[in-house]
Amino acid sequence: MPSNKFKMNNKLRTTGLAALCSLGIFWSLPAVAQQRSGNWGESNKLEDAEIVVEKNRVNELPEANRNFEKFRISPIERKPQPVAYKFNDFKLADLSLNLPIRVLTIRQEELAKLYGNYVKLGVGNYGTSYVKGYFHNKRDNQYSYGADVSHVSSLRGPVENSGVSNSGINLSGESFSKDLTFGGKLAYSHDRYNFYGYSPLNETIDKEDIKQRFNRIGTGLYFHNNQSGGPFRLSGGLGFDYFSNYYSARESNIKFDLGTTYALDKSSAIKIDADASFINYKDVNSQNRSYFRLKPVYERTTDNLILTLGATVGYTNDTLKTTRSFNLYPNVRVAYELVDDKFQVFAGVGGDLERVSLFRLTQENPFLNQNVAVADVNKVLDFYGGITGSLSSSFQFAGRAAYQSYRNLYFFNNSPVDSAKFDLVYDNGTTKVISFSGDLTYSQSDRFRMGVKAAINQYTTDLLVKPFHRPTFQGNLYSTYNLNDKINIQADLYYISSTFGQVVRNLNSILPTTVLKETDDIVDLNLKADYRFSDKFSTFVMANNILGQSYQRFVNYPNKGFQVIAGISYLF
Question: For the whole model, what pTM was predicted?
């Protein structure tokens, strides 16, 4: 079938082509004849001829150019025509309605109510009266001033004639400006004690003979510049302390201090600190005591390293035979930051000359004897090292170990003449001390806080039998808890290891005997609770020595047993 179809198509194509050729010959013959004779005639007859049509010829036409854009018509140019606007002024009729307009604004946050003053009143067993007051100005960008008063007294104590009274008032004020802060303070305290640690062998006691009374006055002026962006910082102070007791002992102390810091660049600075003190002491004897200390250092801080290089120069004119007037100590400290500033290890070597006054000694032990020998403590050498850091945002810790050598380190020992009073005694040569100290704190915002502190001091004396009344171990466990700003609880647990003292007993009239006495370990648990009725009123309860331990901090001086004080507080 495909072959026959092909032949049929080919035949049709041949027949059509023959017809076209015949038609062309038909039109061409008259033209040829006319060219020969000019007209048709008899002589011009068509002779027989054979026409051969070749069907194999192929007509090929040349490829034509395709021009799609014969004519280009330019777009009509549109000329802008101005548009005329017509405004019609429509005027509304006046309304007689009063329409109030409310402007919406952001409400400013109000400052919290600040109570700058409070008064606390309480009473307790042992005939105790308790008064505390704090009075201070509130928010002020230029001045800060205030006063606080305190009075705590007990008519009775653990034994007869052991009542005590402590009263004081402190005034303070500061002035702030752009470049300078200037301030001052004035403090007065009156303390009343009895020498109740007398021997029970004495049958009759004159209360005038066991009285002790202290009056202390402290004044001071200070300043420091506030140019935090500048390279030079300056601070200083001038003060005066006055002390007197029941036995007409007098001590006046004029003191001043000056501190300078000059930043060499962002990572290094030079610091120079200086302080001086001039004491006039009058008792049975009179003595003028001078003191001066200078501490120049160079500090450099890098990304992980803090380096301190310097020295300390000290001078004292104390007259003890072990005293060195001029003293030079090294002051070198290296600290290195570890683990993304979470831990710091440090080590150093140094020394210092520490100012000691009767003003301070009677605060540490109010049962001092008359005409005691006061001398500055000379820390000849101090090798130390330690670590500080944080386990998290809530846990912080610190630890330190040191080997120290002292001259004129004082100890409290019972007087051989009157064991109810204490003398200051010193070691003949140097006293060696190996110390370890550390603390760990945990804080959970403002609701809960807990911490522990501990210190171990192992004393090695030269001629002294014992390091009198200096404990080997001291520890403190403390915590606070705030329940919905309604109940606030504070707890403290103290532990102090036993100490030693010497007591002279006249067992017979011929030969007195010296007895070495050891105090008991001190375990003292204290608790304080406040309950707030409102923003202004609250009540409190303070319980001391809850365990009811009968202990002695100083030989022959028992402390109070369980004591409780309850009262109210008012804030305004």
Answer: 0.75
